[in-house]
Specification:
Order of helices and strands: EHEHEEHHEHEHEEHEHHH
Largest sheet: 6 strands, mixed
Distance between the termini: 34 Å
Helix content: 25-40%
CATH topology: TIM Barrel
Number of helices: 10
Radius of gyration: 19 Å
Number of domains: 1
Shape: globular
CATH superfamily: Metal-dependent hydrolases
Structural class: alpha/beta
CATH architecture: Alpha-Beta Barrel
Number of strands: 9
């Protein structure tokens, strides 16, 4: 069975880019369009991982091969941000996750108590901003899965994530991280012998899954940004006035990937390039999340 475990729809909210965040969405893909595209590309199971939202689930609940997931934006104790993929959640659990997303200890305690499968996404990317060394201690201590094949990340970043996951004995997650329909299903997680969602997710948790598909790159990201821009203009006709700015997009994409490459290589050296003794000496102690009683 195959499933794209990182894919977005129109329910991911507004983009975070300054100025554009007032009128441009993260994605314009409708849930049904995402579902149909994933099925055409050979996915046996379908989920959405919108940013802090399960709004797209209502349109897809009628499909027996669909399950509800989300990408939770969480604040780390260091003050950095991290994207956490959480899979197969109920509406009640979604509410509890959102209540705890600014308190990593509480969030981790809840995820563990409810035995939810969760992953740290694009671990060697600057997508959520800066990273601190202490963040990786949290990832090692408490996260059962790492996203090791992201369809928007450079092959180098994915290789480093896979290497870290293997060294720390973490489960591997793969997904397209698509915000535009052309990239939906371009990366995925696969479990050969799974017969249903439960067996699939249990196999992922048990490190029995494989990841595959495309990596990210200049042409792919440029195409997706142009696609999102065209959808933005279709929704808000006045934004067509911004169309001349489209000539800048290839340059912006190029600079983005140069920065991503530099960011990924720096943290790969910091984490994977150090000896075990030196790495452990530099990582800060991590407090154990307290077990809670939940409503």
């Amino acid at each position: 069975m195959r499933c794209d475990l990182h894919v977005h729809s129109v329910h991911s909210g507004m983009c975070t880019t300054p100025v554009f965040r007032h009128f441009c969405r993260e994605s314009y893909s409708q849930p049904e369009e995402v579902y149909e595209t994933l099925k055409r590309k050979g996915m046996n199971l379908v989920t959405l991982t919108d940013h802090d939202s399960i709004g797209g689930a209502e349109a897809l609940r009628r499909h027996p091969d669909f399950f509800v997931s989300e990408e939770v934006t969480c604040r780390m104790p260091s003050g950095t941000a991290v994207h956490i993929g959480v899979y197969d959640v109920s509406e009640r659990q979604h509410i509890q996750l959102q209540r705890r997303r600014d308190d990593l200890g509480s969030l981790l305690a809840y995820l563990t108590e409810r035995r939810l499968l969760f992953s740290v996404n694009h671990v060697f990317s600057s997508l959520t901003g800066r990273r601190e060394l202490a963040d990786f201690a949290w990832f090692e201590a408490f996260f059962p899965a790492f996203e090791t094949h992201n369809g928007q990340m450079l092959a180098f970043q994915n290789r480093q994530a896979a290497g870290l996951a293997q060294r720390l004995r973490k489960a591997a997650i793969g997904g397209s991280d698509s915000h535009a329909l052309p990239s939906v299903g371009s990366a995925y997680t696969e479990v050969v012998r799974a017969r249903d969602k439960t067996e699939f997710l249990e196999a992922v948790r048990a490190r029995q899954a494989a990841v595959g598909g495309e990596h990210g790159g200049f042409v792919k990201l440029t195409r997706d940004i142009l696609w999102i821009g065209a959808e933005m203009m279709r929704e808000k006709s006045w934004t067509a006035l911004l169309a001349p700015l489209g000539v800048l997009i290839p340059g912006i994409t190029y600079l983005n990937y140069r920065h991503e490459n530099k960011f990924g290589r720096y943290w790969a050296r910091e984490i994977l390039g150090e000896s075990e003794r030196r790495r452990n000496a530099r990582w800060l102690p991590v407090a154990q999340p307290a077990t809670e009683e939940f409503i």
